[in-house]
Design goal:
Elements (H helix, E strand, L loop, with lengths): L13 H54 L1 E3 L1 H8 L11 E6 L4 E7 L4 E6 L4 E3 L5 E11 L16 E10 L7 E9 L6
Antiparallel strand pairs: 1-2, 2-3, 3-4, 4-5, 6-7, 7-8
Length: about 190
């Protein structure tokens, strides 16, 4: 007859351990991948937010000066010739503010920044070191002095600013291009 022995063997076979370890490894790798991806996305969103904030600050400063100033058409006549229209786009915007002070916005291609100069004072960068301005153009309309005749202009003078900007911090590359047309409210002073 057969004798049946009852054994108290408990545990896992080597095959069960290999399968369990494999499943655990796959789960850990998937979780790490999702976590890593969400961190990259968060860094990208933070870089984009920082870039938008910086761009808004620059555009507000430029817009305020344009609205309360007038284009220095005589300065552009020395560049393009007397009586010749301005050839758009220009990378330097030269204005005269309400106190008859000269205001100059210019694009510095070497440092990839926008600069502001008041009268003959020092040239000051407007943008932070966290961003690079990759392109800056000003479109001046009308291209000739509308006040030269002494009559009110038939077209409201305006300036369109087109700026491409990107983040220079970390590995996350955020890019943004903005365009804004600003009328000159103080053109006739």
């Amino acid at each position: 007859m057969f004798k049946y022995f009852k054994t108290d063997e408990h545990g896992f076979s080597i095959m069960e351990l290999v399968v369990a370890t494999g499943i655990f490894s796959i789960l850990v790798l998937a979780t790490f991948g999702i976590f890593s991806s969400s961190l990259r996305g968060q860094r990208q969103v933070l870089a984009q937010t920082r870039l938008q904030r910086e761009t808004q600050l620059i555009m507000e400063t430029v817009s305020k000066k344009i609205r309360t100033s007038r284009v220095d058409y005589t300065e552009y006549e020395t560049v393009f010739g007397s009586g010749n229209p301005i050839i758009n786009p220009v990378q330097e915007l030269i204005l005269i503010d309400q106190a008859d002070a000269r205001v100059k916005f210019s694009y510095d291609q070497i440092n990839q920044a926008i600069n502001l100069q008041l009268d003959a004072g020092p040239i000051n960068p407007m943008s932070s070191s966290d961003i690079n301005i990759t392109n800056l153009n000003f479109f001046i309309e009308p291209t000739t002095n509308p006040f030269a005749t002494g009559l009110l202009p038939s077209v409201q003078p305006r300036i369109t600013v087109v700026m491409s900007i990107q983040s220079s911090v970390g590995n996350s590359l955020a890019k943004l291009t903005v365009q804004q047309t600003i009328p000159q409210l103080g053109s006739s002073f």
